[in-house]
Amino acid sequence: MQLGTRWTAREQPPKAVPEALHAQIAAVEAALNPDGLSAPAPRWTLTFLEGRPVAELDTGVIVSQDASGEVVVRYDDDAEFA
Questions:
Q1: Taken in order 47, 52, 57, 62, is the CA torsion positive or negative?
Q2: Is 75 helix (H, G, I), strand (E, B) or coil?
Q3: What does the DSSP assignment read for 19-53?
Q4: Contact 46/40 with Cβ under 8 angstroms?
Q5: How far apart are CA 40 and CA 12, in angstroms?
Q6: Residue 4: its pLDDT value, please?
Q7: 69: left (phi over 0), alpha (psi -120 to 50) or beta
Q8: Extents of the domains making up the chain
Q9: Do 37 and 74 form a contact (C-beta atoms < 8 A)?
Q10: For residue range 23-79, what is the model confidence (pLDDT) as tens digits?
Q11: C-alpha distances out from residue 18 to 8, 13, 24, Å
Q12: What's the CA gap between 37 and 39, in Å, rounded?
């Protein structure tokens, strides 16, 4: 696994984030609770697994690209934050 970069949700993704993931990242962020009073915005971590991008939000949501190029959104059941 190769570490890519981190950025805060609702900010422009860095150039390292493949364009193919942008629409689903934006959809996930649109569903986030906009309450900025109680907690800081979650952060994304971009990694590459077997050469494919994986963007994971601190909340456990994962946006990745599978071997066929399809963008998949899933939830990590082992995430600490819910």
A1: negative
A2: strand
A3: HHHHHHHHHHHHTS---TTTSPPPEEEEEEETTEE
A4: no
A5: 17
A6: 76
A7: left
A8: 5-31+41-75
A9: no
A10: 999 999 999 877 666 678 899 999 999 999 999 999 999 999 999 999 999 998 776
A11: 16, 9, 11
A12: 6
Provide the residue count of the chain: 82
CA-to-CA separations, 6 to 2, 31, 54, 68, in angstroms, rounded:
13, 20, 12, 25
At 28, list the tokens.
């996930």
Q: Take residue 61 and report the two structure tokens written for it.
A: 């949501």
Measured between alpha carbons, how far is 62 from 69 in angstroms, rounded to an integer?
Answer: 15
Token pair 């456990």: residue = 60
Q: Compute the distance between CA of residue 28 and CA of residue 41 in angstroms, rounded to an integer.
A: 13
Instruction: Give residues with Cβ within 8 angstroms of 23, minimum separation 6.
Output: 71
